[in-house]
Write a structure and sequence with these properties.
mainly alpha, Growth Hormone, Chain: A, 3-stranded antiparallel beta sheet, 6% strand, elongated, transmembrane transporter activity
Amino acid sequence: MAITKESFGAQVTNTSLSREGKSQNISDRAISLMDQMKDQQVDADYTLIHVSQREIIVEFQEGSAANPQNWTLKKKLFNAIAAFLIIVNCGISSALPSNAAPTIMSEFGQAGIDEWSSLPNAVYLMGYVVGSVIFSALSETIGRRPVLLGSFTVFVLGTLACALAPNWPSLLVFRAICGLAGSAPQTVIGGLYADIFFDARTRGRAMLSYTSAREKKAD
């Protein structure tokens, strides 16, 4: 097959263009890797990779103590039991005023208005609805520990405020605050157990205790 001067020149041009394209791809990849390295925050225990403004990947170092799956059994059990008690406490509080409703109504001068007797429970559950949307996303952004500790502190203070409420409207406001703060364990502790327990069987048993606490609250 005869190769003319024109066809040979075209082949040389295509080869050079192909090489230029490959070199451009390599340079693009290098720039991309450099950008990723700039967006990485390296710590002794983990690395934070900023994929985008709203997405961060956490990569733990092998055997890192910051990884909950590498915690000792004692530490795992302590956190699991503490979380279980928190969710039981917040769950029971949702229906706690039910049996004392006549006494509470009489104390605040609302006796005889049966339609209002369920308001302390209703506003608590309204706080549950709003708080679940907030705390579930917030725990993925700032972590589960600050969400649980902060919300439970507000819950305890709100419960104390309910006991010291001077009138009926303030009682309802404090009950709504308790419901808002008490919703955090309902949405966060399931993720907490998933973080701590890596083995499927152990995680299943932990989730069983979590769901049983929720069912006990519903009953």
